[in-house]
Amino acid sequence: MKGYVFHGPGQSAWEEVPDPDVKEPTDAVVRVDTVTICGTDLHILKGDVPEVRPGTVLGHEAVGEVVEVGADVRTVRPGDRVLVSCITACGRCRYCREAMYGQCLGGGGWILGHRIDGTQAEFVRVPFADLSVHALPAAVASGDAVLLADILPTAYEVGVLNGRVRPGDTVAVVGAGPIGLAAIATAHLFAPERVIAVDVAPARLEAARRLGAEAVADAREAPEQLVADLTGGLGADVVVEAVGLPETFEVCTRMVRPGGHVANVGVHGKPATLHLEELWIKNVTITTGLVDTYSTPTLLKMAAAGRLPTSELVTHTFPLERMEEAYDVFAHAAETGALKVVLGGPQHEVVPVSMA
């Protein structure tokens, strides 16, 4: 089979790799139908995630068909159409028993495309299949379902739920990339008074408006002042950091009101300054987190009911064998306008979706 292989910083290729097979009785092998690319994959290619060894197939999000299962798998069988979660869960350790699957101690957590071969291939082996794949309802298209493997549960759990968005809140989302846009969409499930999106790209701010942001701000033009103006000087009740840069984190701490929440979702590769000399007196709660995907069944129900604007997040589609081109488009989002790129499924040509 073919897969997209990491060979070291700046080096990767779509090439022949060995077919996966069942190694443990809890494994499933899935024929991949649809995948997407995550910002974390770009971090790996830059060398920011040293645990990823050269020779690893990348990717941690997929939709496909189960073709083989181990003797202990009970929840799926060959022929089932499934969502492959970005998080793998043993189901037995302390953290899994607390639904903190991202911190799994039993060999799970974020392992696909990280510590073992991932999903950007024609087939993938998924450990602990009973808790790590989800049977898909027929009503959810593959191109929509694949967004529930990572970005939607990440935005919902680490951003909206950790931030404790409540009815009537002012929510500021710093970073209107795929995760930030998913946070805007899922924040509206809790009826906030307003959502404010902050970014530097006009196309992304326009996408934020389409997904429900009532106000937008250029990150280079003192967005904290807009937040202050819209809240009578109080600041936002919840601020979601969805970029992963020191300066954006520090902007978030300046935007939040006393008693508010800063929910950090962005992947940080450099230290950020925590201004406790200003924050200690403000009763501010700051949360961080890796997604646990405990919300995936709930999100699947909402997707099947048409309650999640998944198609709004997809800007480009490609056939699976054009993985290298898809990576190039996604990596140059400022020029291409890419939000999420989806590979595989029924499409047979590159389809850039209009951002107008």
From TrEMBL:
Pfam families named among the record's database cross-references: ADH_N (PF08240), ADH_zinc_N (PF00107)
Region (Disordered): 1-22
Record keyword Oxidoreductase present: yes
Cofactor(s) listed in the protein's UniProt record: Zn(2+)
Cross-referenced PANTHER family: NADP-DEPENDENT ISOPROPANOL DEHYDROGENASE (PTHR42813:SF4), ZINC-TYPE ALCOHOL DEHYDROGENASE-LIKE (PTHR42813)
Family: Belongs to the zinc-containing alcohol dehydrogenase family.
Descriptive protein name: Zinc-dependent alcohol dehydrogenase family protein
Source organism of the structure: Streptomyces kebangsaanensis
